[in-house]
Amino acid sequence: MKIKLSLCADYHLNRMNPERLEGLNEIMERAVKNNVDAMVHCGDFITDLENYKFALDSFLHNDAKIPAFGCYGNHELELTDSLETLNSAYGLENSYYYVDLKGFRLVFTDTNYFEKDGVIQRYPGYSVGGPDWTYDHNMLGEAQLSWLSQSI
Predict the structure, then answer these.
(1) pLDDT value of residue 63
(2) Cβ burial 33-49 (10 Å sphere, 16+ → b, else e)
(3) pTM for this one?
(4) What contacts 150, CB < 8 A, 6 or more positions away?
(5) Are 19 and 55 in contact (CB under 8 A)?
(6) So what's the pLDDT on residue 37?
(7) Could you say which DSSP state residue 112 is in?
(8) Which residues pair with residue 13 across a beta bridge?
(9) Which residues pair with 101 in a beta bridge?
(10) Higher pLDDT, 120 or 101
């Protein structure tokens, strides 16, 4: 068995980088040309959901009908008010999930959790650069770890 994926990460699509829309089209064209089984973004795809949801939609629901998936990086929360808003935009019930494709299980985790005063919490919306946010404290959290152990 084999699977062919097109991967991208850290696209940071927002008002400061509108030229990246052209690059996104190139990523999708390359995926079609290479006859991939799925496209996967590995976080930080979009930082301005309000103004660039159309780009996320064009990736997830592309004209070529290539399955597309992704996970949240820290920048998905940068200009988004809540996890529920993100999940709705991505068409997800939860920020971590798996997809079975061609005999493989693709697992997508959410590392936007941190420990403060002994309690594991999820970063709230608008949290990048906030007082509790740091690169070195991201983790999965107890509930996600339990889900992960049952899912793989």
Answers:
(1) 95
(2) eeebebbbbebbbbbbb
(3) 0.88
(4) none
(5) no
(6) 98
(7) B
(8) 46
(9) 104
(10) 101
- Angle, to 10 degrees, between the axis of helix 49-60 and the axis of helix 20-33? 10
Of the candidates 42, 77, 40, the residue with the CA atom closest to the CA atom of residue 62: 40
Q: Which two tokens stand for residue 127?
A: 């949290």
Look at residue 130 in the predicted model and tell me its pLDDT: 56
Separation of alpha carbons 99 and 39, rounded Å: 12
What is the chain's Cα-based Rg? Answer: 16
Encoded tokens for 128: 């990048």
Residue 45 Cα distances to 117, 120, 148, angstroms: 31, 25, 23
- Quick: pLDDT tens for 114-148: 777 888 777 776 665 555 666 666 778 888 899 99
Tell the residue number behind the tokens 């820290």, with chain if given.
Answer: 74
